[in-house]
Amino acid sequence: MTKSRKPWLDVVRAAAILCVVLCHSVEAFYRPVLLGQLQVSFPLWNIENLLFTVGRIGVPLFLAITGALMLPRNYPDVSAFYKKSLLPLFLTTEIWIFCNYIFYCLIEHKAFDISRLILEMLFLKASSLSHMWYMPVILGCYVALPFISRLLQASTNLRQYSLLYVLGIVIFFIIPTANVFFKEAITVMPGLSPQFDTGLWGSCYSFYIITGYLISKHQLLDRFKSQSLLFGIILAFVLNSTGQYYLYSHHYYQSTWLYWYTDFAIFLIGIFTFELLRRRYHHKTIIKFAPVIEYISRCSFGVYIIHKPILVVLQKCFNHFTTAPVRIQMPALFFASLFSSLILLYPFKSVWKKAGSLLFHIK
User: Fold this and answer.
1) Do residues 47 and 329 make contact, with C-beta atoms less than 8 angstroms apart?
2) Mind listing the pLDDT tens digit for each residue in 89-116?
3) CA 106/CA 84 separation, integer angstroms
4) Are 12 and 277 in contact (CB under 8 A)?
5) Residue 288 is inside which H or E element, if any?
6) Is the pTM of this model over 0.90?
7) 70: closest CA among 181, 191, 153, 14?
8) Under 8 Å between Cβ of 65 and 9
9) H or E element that contains 207
10) Are the C-beta atoms of residues 49 and 346 closer than 8 Å to each other?
11) Contact predicate 46/249, CB 8 Å
12) DSSP string of 30-66?
């Protein structure tokens, strides 16, 4: 790998984008099940649940990487950071909101609506392709990063924020997880609605970023053995899957939040996985398949941007040309969309580098 890069972060970033592509590949088949539009056998439900949960680790890993990379930096000139990092990300987002809307109109045979496009570009309406929800989230986090960094680095004793951190876990993860069941399954209990204004905290997404920083810079989880973290991952998965199957089997379909990033199990699985990968690769200078890992890492943002349109096209093809079982279609869709994305991005990494930087943030 390139000497200036941190190999362990390349490993985590590569793992993160693989998870994201897996998540969306499985979601194409699993979402109708989650919404109660389709019933499947228990073995197939287990496969889809397992793969979908693994896929959900991707975003927590990306956010933790952001914290590990961005929060230890100094930001003496906030406007310079905004110009160098935030503005290019904003421009890329606007370009792809426009491109995705045109793609949506063509693939779904919808009439072009300039008012909808403007609302999407102003972040006043959800983007036509669902994966773009992440872009306004990360843009908002970038706005806050210099100030969060100053707060954390100015503190000589981070233990003074322990109570605030625990409060964040309760508000951002434990209460939303409990509310999933209060909404439908345990209606005798009222839903919990904290009255704290958490807008300035950046919601749960900034919490992932801060935790990634604390793990990387301050060894937040060093006191726990790797076996304990692995057990925690397995336990969180089992409990979360049990809860999700209870909702599914009792026909509670109003909420899919046990897979969202406010779910306490997803938080634990994502953060513990980040720590295990850090321990495994942090001090390694030579990593197997290093060129492949670095390539995937460098192209990860580009893969995130273009894999969804590719998935949409491929799924339409699958619907027309195959009757293969879902357990075959899911991995086929994953590998086809992943490799298609990586191949399409190759010239932007090696030849059209300026376009690659603007459109896909290939570095």
Assistant:
1) no
2) 999 999 999 999 999 999 999 999 999 9
3) 34
4) yes
5) none
6) yes
7) 153
8) yes
9) helix 203-218
10) no
11) no
12) HHHHHTTS----HHHHHHHHHHHHHHTTHHHHHHHHH
